[in-house]
């Protein structure tokens, strides 16, 4: 059954077995293999059937076709056991497992009907059960120091409980044959000679009694078998013997009592359920004391199962003393026996048991007993049930009372005169909820109360139920709409539906309500609260009950989320009767806002906020006196110091919401109240909790629009400048809150300081270089605020400039009335200047450039990659920022109209060679030469048309663009290509993130990329738009971010302009800790490098691009090791041979890059990755081979034991496959000597012992190692004075 999260909208119920054909196929395979494949088929068989666990009735049409073929296999095993005792154990066990799965899902009563039930099967099945039982040996264990002996079952051939259960169940069906069992016993002689003990019966009884001492399903089936066997007419003698045995067993103490007592009690309960009254009545006086004692004994105290069976047994014994007319001994008018009175007392006590199964059994027992008692005595039992519904009673008593009422109502045993007394109790049970620590209990009580209403509707006519149902209807609908638990909402809805269907028109508007409040609409709490309940509240019969429940219960609930939803639900009811909420409810909420109980004051504050706003929306504002009281709630809360102690953060969030709703409703405030509310928001913006800061920022936006807009220009400026200054505060909480506030401020506060706001946020979004406390959350908030403030200043509410207005006028592009009258004195000229389209474009370009730079935030702290939060915020901010920038860029607007997707070759950013502006890798002459080698290797890529553009790094592009933007700010003409270059840089940065390590980040990148591609109007200048659209636009971002979707993204490596960011992102993933991710990406990359028809030309471009990336990340703690691992992934033997044959300078550059990363390195992981790369480079021809060998031997004589050992192991493995060649300088004997040295030396031992061996290996291979010398300190920039 496809039932998903009960709080989700996606709930689907099956109406038929979809996999019926597959089930039949599995059964046929098991039959064809004679059970040998049953074990292999079990997993899929169970998966299908468990799906219908809650709707097992759907399997009924197919049970015969499933059970009969499998039971036929079992029958053949039984005949085989009777004849030869040689059975395929695995086939038998697999077949029984399939059958037991069916029995578990559908129940044994429905499944056993399709088992063979011929008398001739009794002996074979008994033999088969005996054989299965023999597979379990019994071992007696004596506990040291005690006199205890335990019989423990030790399985010999796996678990056999499924076979035990199936065979015992089958025997319980066969034992019902309508013949004397002695007639089917082949071991018995002539039956006519006189009464004899049947060996077959003795065998069955012996096996069943042994299984009664086991645990689990075998004991249950054995009890069923013994109950049916002993109630046969021909087993009276055995019944008496078992009764004596049972009396002794029920009094047993010790370790084994917890197994035998439930089995015996269950057997007795079945016997007294199905046996003949005349035969069993004499046993009742003997059994009753044992049953009563069992319920109060030590075993019952430890086991809920024993208590349940004791309750069941006691009610069966009491029923045995009663006939259908309610008299004892079959004589009318005689008083009931003591057993019945004691049984009623035990059952009433069982209704208060702590376990549900015991209460449920006791409730059914009350119903059964009352059905057999005379009317007066039955009503006397009913009269004792209201005592369970006391305020001091535990939830177990309420639940048991509801179950008992439901059982009595279902049987029609509640007298109509009792209904008016019971209806208020049921209404209270429908709302039962008792706080217990950090949670509450009562959902089971409310569910049982709905069951009572359902039973009442089915059992009584509308004339009897009319008055009671009118009282129950509002409570049912309250539970259906507002209960916290989905099962209670649906139970109440089912009871209401049953009442409407069976009681006719007793419920007003019943049919209309049922169409809105059904099983599915009530499945989601939000929909039930905010959609279904307001619909029902339009009917006055139910409105007040719904509203009062929210006020009195849900606004004071222990669950914070429920209180917040309840406040919104209360506001949703306001349109139905505004006057009621305007008066009574506001007056009720105001004093509760200062309640000493946290839940009460929090819910009241939220409710007051939402109701005030809802009243304003319907045009029914608060009266002046009440509005003044609402305005004074926040100062009163602060005066009472309710922010302190437990729940202070919760109250701060509620107060922010109250201020927001006060501002949105435009309630009149005095100047003192405005200052107090503003100060409260400023204080909450400094709170370290992000949720409180976010709520305060939203409230600040509404507050400023409602009240601050009418303040003086100086006051407006102070508000903005205060938060600008907060961006530089040493307190990280203040920085976070100030960034949020700037993102939320309205345009009239931002416009006079637009340039400073955008520049400050752009700087705050960058990683702090010298900050004592760098904070990723501050940078994340700054990036979000940058996009929000730009949208506020220049968003859709303002008309974008036209080409005519941009050329002929310097007026602002927005409406002049918004800010000209509110600017501070002396700032109008400056504001007019900054609002020109050219300056707006420059400012937006700065914002976009800062957001792109935030894509390089890879900060790490003890929480992990916290920089990912900044990168994700940046990717979310880029689409709206780029859209704004395009709207204010004339060239981009024309490109969007005429050529939305220009060729990718014309979009690359002009940039110098990386080696021309990057500092050398190290200061030594050798490393400078290595840098030149890398530059020469890159020459081939840069000689191609526009190839240097494709290799430009994002950081270099940002630097070049920043210079152009700053020149425009200084007053010089701005480069018209800057916006186009920013689009390219942004797309390349997002593409890089789409293949990096974190799944969440990849999803954010792909969603951002899809938004950019689908933007309307189309965003021009996107590089390789068609290629990106073919990959991104047609796929789900969540799928592309998975391992199966990444190869599609890797295919973009063929696009020249996207190759560099893709390789940079892929390198980070290949070298990360996630092995499956690295393997997936490296495999996809190698596949793309292969090309068509074994053409490895793409390999050249990938290798060149990888070497071009390397100088930027030299000695980087984040990228150095991943780059080495990516290089090792590319250096497969075929790829390396092709590179050395077609572009040997690239191999030389790879060796140079590896040597540069390993020189002076102390990172063991990086050294090991370098050893792997050098080992692969040994496959080259001289002189590359000699260089790689020299570097590898250098690692083998380094100071890190783990690196030495790893390098030696890799070198030894390579020597094993090192083939002879004309260019090799050493002989096979020398190679053998090297291998011996590698295996005989403890490379992770003392360094003094490893270095001579390394020298000996170098001599044998004719390699000249450089002399060892002390490591020179790393070069740093120094002042001229120091150099002199």
UniProtKB/TrEMBL annotation:
Gene3D superfamilies from the UniProt entry:
Leucine-rich Repeat Variant (1.25.10.10)
User: Which stretches does UniProt call biased (Low complexity)?
Assistant: 895-911
GO molecular function terms attached to this record: beta-tubulin binding; GTPase activator activity
Listed GO biological process terms: microtubule cytoskeleton organization; post-chaperonin tubulin folding pathway; tubulin complex assembly
- InterPro entries membership: ARM-like, ARM-type_fold, ARM_TBCD_2nd, TBCD, TBCD_C
Which residue range or ranges hold the Tubulin-folding cofactor D C-terminal domain? 986-1166
Query: Is Chaperone among the key words of this record?
Result: yes
Enumerate the spans annotated as Tubulin-folding cofactor D ARM repeats domain.
Answer: 331-511
Supply the SUPFAM superfamilies for this chain: ARM repeat
The ranges of region (Disordered) come to 794-834, 893-928
Compositional bias (Polar residues): 802-811, 818-830
What are the alphabetically sorted keywords of the record?
Answer: Chaperone
Protein name as catalogued:
Tubulin-specific chaperone D
Which species is this record about?
Apatococcus lobatus
